[in-house]
Design goal:
155 residues, alpha+beta, 2,3-Dihydroxybiphenyl 1,2-Dioxygenase, domain 1, 8-stranded mixed sheet, 3 helices, 10 strands, disordered N terminus
Length: 155
């Protein structure tokens, strides 16, 4: 869901396309944090909103919480154990930007588009992510070192 900055009306860009690409609507920006309990109050205070959901994503062994800003969602991602990719990320880089997620209406079609355009995938097939949504990650080499996630729209 996207918000107009001028009148608060909800704008739906899911069917708008400037060119045929799955990378047009940002779903969320993810920030790796070592401790969700410690990080959440800072984000809530600075963004002026409460954490809008928190869950354990067992398949990825992470705990996530969402901060819903006016025009974007921030996903705080914390490791649920010490032997996970997010733990290794934090050990190597410390807290900070982890990935950018794009909203897609058809994740299988988006993955096919990525393959057809030579983008390197970390996930060949979609898996279950936060909020029960189907997700897949692209290798950072596909976007100048930025990890990119595709999130299928649930509507």
């Amino acid at each position: 869901m996207l918000w107009s900055m001028t009148d608060g009306a909800v704008l739906d860009f899911r069917h708008h396309s400037v060119m045929e690409t799955p990378f047009q609507v940002i779903d969320h920006i993810a920030v790796a944090v070592p401790d969700l309990d410690a990080a959440a109050p800072q984000w809530e205070e600075r963004c002026g909103v409460d954490l809008a959901g928190r869950e354990l994503v067992v398949q990825q062994s992470v705990e996530v919480g969402f901060v819903q800003c006016l025009n974007a969602r921030i996903e705080l991602v914390a490791p649920a154990s010490e032997s996970t990719p997010i733990s290794r990320f934090l050990q190597a880089r410390g807290p900070g930007l982890h990935h950018i997620a794009f909203l897609v209406t058809d994740i299988d079609g988006a993955l096919d588009w990525c393959r057809a355009h030579g983008l390197r995938l970390l996930d060949e097939h979609a898996r279950t992510g936060a909020e029960g949504r189907r997700v897949a990650f692209l290798h950072p080499s596909a976007f100048q070192g930025v990890l990119v996630e595709l999130c299928e729209d649930q509507q």
